[in-house]
Design brief:
The protein has about 140 residues and is an alpha/beta fold. The chain is about 40% helix and about 15% strand. It is globular.
Length: about 140
């Protein structure tokens, strides 16, 4: 029987096409089955930002098959961590959840050259998040 995930994380940005998709891709890549990963947007786009897809592909992470999803109260309720990226007002607040707001530049309308630094900043933040989740799990064990 597989172990239950240590935590569930929901990444939220307005269009669920760039920042939140890259963050979800990094978390799934770095944490594997240890963390349940979701992403959503308050006003989802029709497709994931092609520059974000390309920037992630360059480092071996494929988010091309992802689709923007609408933010729901159920997704927030089911998550331990809710990380917003520029749409904090749109997220319902429930007690017992950890809310973080990452101020990140929006990659919408930018080319891959401009998306790379955003991608790299997201990677650093996700790596720190994984370390925090692992540390909490160890202290609770």
């Amino acid at each position: 029987m597989a172990d239950a995930p240590l935590a569930s994380v929901l990444f939220v940005c307005v269009h669920n096409a760039g920042r939140s998709q890259m963050a979800a891709g990094f978390l799934a890549h770095l944490a594997g089955d240890r963390v349940e990963v979701r992403s959503a947007g308050s006003v989802p786009a029709d497709r994931v930002n092609p520059a974000a897809v390309e920037a992630m592909r360059e480092i071996g992470i494929d988010i091309a098959g992802q689709r923007p999803k609408v933010l729901t109260a159920e997704a927030v309720r089911a998550s331990d961590y809710v990380i917003t990226m520029g749409c904090g007002d749109a997220c319902p607040v429930f007690p017992g959840k950890e809310y973080l707001d990452w101020a990140l530049e929006d990659p919408a309308g930018k080319g891959v050259e401009s998306v790379r630094p955003i991608r790299d900043e997201i990677r650093g933040r996700v790596e720190a998040l994984v370390a925090e989740i692992d540390s909490r799990a160890e202290s609770e064990a």
